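Table S2 (text version). Query chain:
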Amino acid sequence: MPSITFSTYAGVFDFQQVDPESGEEGLFIEDAAILKTLDGLSYDEEVFADFLFDGEDAGELEDAGISGGSLDFTFDSATGRLIGRTEYQLERALNPDQIAVLKNYTIGQWSDGIGANFFQERMRKGLAPQLLVADESAVQVEQRAH
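Corresponding structure-token output:
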């Protein structure tokens, strides 16, 4: 079955620490040893494809047979950073326009949908990864035919 994966580096905040200067909770974490503890973290209580057709551009994707779309994190030892990714299963390969629509949708879910819900949930546990994309070129796309 074909699939497509979108991935980018995650920012991680530790909500058990307080910034000594500002007094704000949630210090940005860059320590590779701490980031590595989040390797394999996953959020699959909601999948991105479940909300795919709520948007105005979704018509472009209706016949693509898209399913899945959990939020997973892996530690990249080469860069010392955490990578967030969302993988969808497809009935067939997507064309470039469909990829662009799905990429835009995924970025939106990362920052203001499922990803935001997950971030808020993780805040209570301390370490909270977040995928905020300022530049779409920072998002890697890999489509596989399987």
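Notes on Table S2: The longest helix spans residues 96-112. The chain is about 20% helix and 35% strand.
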